[in-house]
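User: Can you help me understand a structure? I only have the sequence.
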Amino acid sequence: MLTLRHTAREVLLVLAVLLLLLLANTVQANPRYAAIAIDAQTGDVLHESNADASRYPASLTKMMTLYMLFDAMEQNRVTLNTQMPVSAHAASMPQTNISLRRGDTISVRDAIPALIVRSANDVAAVVAEALGKSESNFAHMMTAKARILGMFSTTFRNASGLPNSAQKSTARDLVILSMRLMQDFPQHYHYFSTQSFIYKGTTYKSHNRMVRNTEGVDGMKTGYIRASGFNVATSAKRNNRRVIVVVMGGKTAKSRDRHIAELLDRTFTRATAVFLNSNDGGSKALSAVNLTASVAVPRHKPDHLLTHPRVSVKPQRFASMNDR
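Assistant: Let's start by predicting it. Here is the structure, written out as tokens:
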């Protein structure tokens, strides 16, 4: 039995090395490419490439907008039934949007799927103004929250991810945000798997094809502007192990999704190798880098409500939108 386990571990190690070689070609061919994959249970980094390089987050920005909205709900500042007014500024936001008009209102209940499914820029501005009085002030609030969460390389200038040369983040920061959304608001994570929603008689379908087409994927967010390329944050669970992946700078939506699917297959293999190695008395040398040290942020939910084990993370310091 011991021999079989050692053989299995050696095979998995070889596969992990092949993964690194194959992904190296992607980096050389695409200078905007950045990626990171982590084991959600342990925080081990299973793959990283340019993970600390500054990139445009595009609509992955809306994950922080949603974090702020969920946080406001926790503090009873708003409820699902709260109606948020639409200003002229919000109504002027370019595609993608849900064609809100000045003087309209939209409920928090409708705003959440509008941000996730439609990636609506007008709704992002509505939320920003409802919580921060102005979008620019809300962007400062978002940046301050990013620092609290341990996202030290992220600066927000708007709530949508529309082009702004000063709005930057990193793959590592965005994987931290992805994990914190799941950990701090587990009761809201189900929204990220929503594939369609109806607003005022119009049905909007999700840009996130990974949830429909890729084994184990149950949510998160896509994003695109010309300067960023095609971005995605993805979470998947297979055989009681969860992996979170952020990829930035894809050349097309299809090639990004194909790469994510391949990366998930290989990182789940690597996660299993790390698990076997640690259970066999070995060290955790298989993980490229551990997301270690703590971020001193109080939990928003009691431990028994957290559906994913909490991992203390801290990164190393080192045109209009058409969300796809």
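Now, to help you interpret it: The domain at 2-305 is CATH 3.40.710.10 (Beta-lactamase). DSSP finds nine helices and ten strands in the chain. Let me know which part you'd like to focus on.
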